[in-house]
C-alpha cells in the first residue's frame, strides 16, 4: 500500500445525502479518527481534538454539496486537509465563553505549531490517512482468516518480528507464514481499493 488512491467518488456522492447512514458510517470510520489524530499530533488536548474533529466533520457535511470532484481542482483528501487546518486555526483564534483573549506567548507558540500550507503537514495528514485506511481494512477483514493465519501476518508484517521466529512460535513452516502474509496483504489491498474506488 505504497500509494493510496483518492477516496472513491461514489462514497463522496453518497454522503451528499444526509440520510445515507451507511455511507456516513463508512466515511466516519475512516475520517473521524484521522482528523482527531492529526489534531493531537499538532498539540491539541484530547477534548479540544474531539471538538475540533466534530466541527470539521460538520463543516464537511455542510460543504460536501459544493465540493468539486474535478481532479484538476485537487483531491478530496487535500480539501479535507484544508478544512482541518482552517478549523485548527479558527479553534485557536476564537475566544471561548468566560475567557479573555490575551494573545500571550503560549497562544502564539501553539498557533505557530499549527500546520501551514507546507509539504510536511500534508505528508503527515496523508500518513495518518493511510494508517486509518489500513486499520479500517484490517478490522473489516480480520474475521475472514483463522487466528493463526492472522497472527502470522500481524507479527511479521505489522509488529516486525522475524519470520522464522514467528513460524516457530506459531508451529507453522516458514513457507506457511509467507503464504499467510501474502494472502492477507492481497486481501488488505483489495479492501483498501474498495474504499478508495480504484
Could you please describe the fold and organization of this structure?
This protein has nine helices and no strands. The chain has 198 residues and is mainly α. The protein has two domains: 1-143, Rna Polymerase Sigma Factor, Chain: A, CATH 1.10.1740.10; 145-198, Arc Repressor Mutant, subunit A, CATH 1.10.10. Mean pLDDT is 78; it is low at 1-6, 99-104 and 110-116.
Write a concise synopsis of the structure shown.
The chain contains nine helices and no strands. By secondary structure, it is mostly helical.
Which structural class matches the secondary elements?
mainly alpha
Biggest sheet descriptor: none
* CATH architectural label of the largest domain: Orthogonal Bundle
Shape descriptor reads elongated
CA-CA gap between termini:
13 Å
Helical residue percent band:
55-70%
Total domains: 2
What is the level 1 CATH name of the largest domain? Mainly Alpha
Spans of at least 5 consecutive residues whose pLDDT stays below 50 are: 1-6, 99-104, 110-116
What share of residues are in beta strands?
Answer: under 5%
Say how many strands there are. 0
CATH topology of the largest domain: Rna Polymerase Sigma Factor, Chain: A
What's the alpha carbon Rg, rounded to whole Å? 20 Å
Provide the CATH superfamily of the largest domain. Answer: RNA polymerase sigma factor, region 2, helix turn helix motif
What is the string of helix and strand elements?
HHHHHHHHH
SS element count, helices: 9
- The overall pLDDT average reads 78
Amino acid at each position: 500500500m505504497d500509494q493510496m488512491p483518492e477516496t472513491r467518488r461514489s462514497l463522496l456522492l453518497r454522503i451528499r445525502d444526509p440520510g445515507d447512514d451507511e455511507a456516513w458510517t463508512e466515511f466516519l470510520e475512516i475520517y473521524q479518527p484521522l482528523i482527531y489524530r492529526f489534531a493531537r499530533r499538532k498539540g491539541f488536548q484530547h477534548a479540544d481534538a474531539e471538538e475540533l474533529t466534530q466541527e470539521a466533520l460538520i463543516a464537511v457535511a455542510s460543504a460536501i454539496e459544493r465540493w468539486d470532484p474535478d481532479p484538476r481542482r485537487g483531491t478530496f483528501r487535500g480539501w479535507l486537509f484544508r478544512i482541518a487546518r482552517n478549523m485548527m486555526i479558527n479553534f485557536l483564534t476564537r475566544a471561548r465563553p468566560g475567557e479573555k483573549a490575551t494573545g500571550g506567548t503560549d497562544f502564539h507558540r501553539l498557533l505557530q505549531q499549527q500546520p501551514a500550507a507546507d509539504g510536511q503537514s500534508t505528508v503527515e495528514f496523508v500518513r495518518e490517512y493511510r494508517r486509518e485506511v489500513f486499520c479500517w481494512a484490517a478490522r473489516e477483514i480480520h474475521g475472514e482468516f483463522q487466528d493463526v493465519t492472522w497472527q502470522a501476518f500481524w507479527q511479521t508484517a505489522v509488529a516486525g518480528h522475524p519470520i522464522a521466529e514467528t513460524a516457530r512460535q506459531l508451529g507453522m513452516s516458514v513457507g506457511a507464514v509467507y503464504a499467510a502474509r501474502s494472502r492477507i496483504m492481497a486481501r488488505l489491498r483489495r479492501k483498501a481499493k474498495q474504499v478508495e474506488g480504484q
